[in-house]
Amino acid sequence: MYKFWQKTIQVLSVLVIIATFFILIWLYKIGILNDQNVLKEFLEQQGHYGSLTYIAIQIIQVVFPIIPGGVTTVVGFLVFGPMWGFLVNYVGIIIGSVILFWLSRTFGKKFCLLFMKEETFYKYESKIDDKKSYEIFFILCMLSPISPADVLVMITGLTSMSYKKFMTIILLCKPLSIIAYSYFWIYGSQLLQHLFNK
């Protein structure tokens, strides 16, 4: 009986991954995952369910790091405002990061190489030998709005870092990077437009 359920779960997991892949292609083709205006309009049409839809999109863009996260992060602030926009961003990114960490820990190097070049992988993997310095490096990167956060979450999944420590780091560090990134693109682009329109 155990083997039956084990096989069933494995088959269902594969089917979910395949279905997710095709859903991602469809969402990308209609512009929801790569066009800020299309995503904004789509979320506004969702009404009360827009927040849940947005959190799901943020989880997807973290777990599948081929989607431009910058587009979705900024849209959260534009559609939901600064406070709620931050909260839905935070929830989606944290959940996505935990899933990505788990996937990397479970499936290892082969999973990581699905989403990054070998040069990138070995560049960051070489840093994990020194446990203490890597942890400091990881903390600084999670604080930074311009670091390859998803790549580093995957690499960290290959280390011996506990789930508790990983969760503590991202829960404390992610707020700063989310706010800094979003406000940089929102107000930075407005400033540039103002300068060029003079």
Give structural notes.
With 198 residues, the chain is mostly helical. It is 80% helix and 0% strand. It has helices at residues 2-29, 36-45, 50-63, 69-80, 82-112, 118-125, 131-143, 149-157, 163-196. Helix 2 crosses helix 4 (69-80). The longest helix has 34 residues, at 163-196. It is globular, with a radius of gyration of 18 Å. The N and C termini lie far apart (73 Å). The mean pLDDT is 79.
Rough outline:
globular
Helix content: over 70%
Question: Are there runs of 5+ residues with pLDDT below 50, and where?
Answer: none
Series of H and E elements: HHHHHHHHH
User: Using only CA atoms, what is the Rg?
Assistant: 18 Å
Count of beta strands: 0
Distance between the termini: 73 Å
Q: Structural class, judged by helices and strands?
A: mainly alpha
Outline the biggest β-sheet. none
**Beta content:** under 5%
Let me know the average pLDDT: 79
List keywords for this structure.
single chain; 9 helices
Give a nutshell description of this structure:
Helix content is 80%, strand content 0%. The protein is mostly helical.
